[in-house]
Amino acid sequence: MSFSNSTPIGPDWSNGRTARRPLTWGYALVWYHGFIRHDVYGSSMLGKLDFLKRHGLVTTGAGLSEIVNMDAAERDKLGEELALHGLQLTPRIKYDYLNATKEVRERETERIAEELRQWLPLTRGQIVTTEMCAGNRFDRKLPLEEKLSRVSEALAPLAAICSELGAPLAVENHGDFYIADIVQLCQATKQLYIYLDTGNTYLIGERPLPAFELAAPYTIGTHFKDHIVGPRPDVYPLQFEIKGAALGEGDVPLRECYELLMKHAPLKDKLVLEVEMIAPTDMDPQQCLERSLRFIQSLEPAATGSKATFSEGEIGK
Fold first, then answer.
1. Residue 170, helix vs strand vs coil
2. Predicted model pTM
3. Burial of residue 40 (number of CB atoms within 10 Å: 0-12, 13-18, 19+)
């Protein structure tokens, strides 16, 4: 069975149902109880696609190994649903970039390349994502420059392969390295980009807006996430508290981030923006989702032409 990797016909952002969106918005996580209709789809990836369809979204992430290891019939059905509804999966790849020997790097690169060539058309993915897989910049196991050098050596052939396949490779900041570190990695690694998690800047102690300004010229995808934050000098060890928030209601400057990406993102035709939502403990996740979706719709009024509407109680139907 073959699957087209042509430009998808996504949902209409003005009514959440039928025509193509001006940008590729999706949902990454958290998959709260009721978001997926387990009574209909069980634990199948099809339940996530159903969620996307019901909320006027286009894409979600999926481990490439998860797709490879699927039952053939389930995988065929997944491909049919993606093509039929103009949806996408954004594949994730990784191995131990930091510690792999030359032989392991070559073997893993060959394996991932073969899997991408076989299954990327099915996913209809615009980009491929990965992570540093190198501990963190503070763990003192290796000097930072050596870490970046090793990761660059491992990612360079994968970046070339992804570019050849039309789905560029992007590294996510997981609260492990500064954005400046990942920019340095991209500058040293041809055809490598950033998958910007907007909330993880706080996780490693970065000021978000300067980090976004650095990242924007290299960013081809995001986990669009908000947090409410604050220092905790009353506890030991001293802490910086990071809580969940509906998008647009926390301390992450998401509107400014969006504007930076619209001005400076290098491959706007490939740009993937996935909502990552951590609901506050005192807010129902469904309500948090509705408020978050209204916020991201407000970012594109000129492109969409009208307000999106989200039905109350839609989740879990």
1. strand
2. 0.88
3. exposed
Report the C-alpha gap between 184 and 181 in whole angstroms. Answer: 5
d(CA 212, CA 194): 11
Q: What does the radius of gyration of the chain's CA atoms come to, in whole angstroms?
A: 19
CA distances to 93, 101, 140, 167, 189 from 96, rounded to whole Å, are 11, 10, 17, 22, 17
What single DSSP character describes residue 59?
E
Q: What is the rounded (10 degree) CA torsion for 158, 116, 170, 190? A: 30
CB 162 within 8 A of CB 116: yes
Sign (positive or negative) of CA dihedral 92, 93, 96, 97? negative
Tens of pLDDT along the chain (317 residues)?
433 333 333 333 333 333 334 579 999 999 999 999 999 998 889 999 999 999 999 999 999 999 999 999 999 999 999 999 999 999 999 999 999 999 999 999 999 999 999 999 999 999 999 999 999 999 999 999 999 999 999 999 999 999 999 999 999 999 999 999 999 999 999 999 999 999 999 999 999 999 999 999 999 999 999 999 999 999 999 999 999 999 999 999 999 999 999 999 999 999 999 999 999 999 999 999 999 999 999 997 644 433 334 333 443 33
Give the integer Cα–Cα distance in Å for 7 and 24.
11
Backbone angles phi, psi at 138, to 5 degrees: -110, 5
Measured distance CA(163)–CA(169) in Å, rounded:
7
Specify the residue for token string 């899997």: 115
Integer CA distances (angstroms), 76 to 11, 99, 127, 136, 250, in order? 22, 36, 21, 38, 40
C-alpha closest to that of 133 among 114, 116, 158, 113: 158
Cα–Cα distance for residue pair 175/247, rounded to 1 Å: 19
| C-alpha to C-alpha distance for 272 and 16, rounded to whole angstroms | 18
Contact in structure between 193 and 167 (CB atoms under 8 Å): no
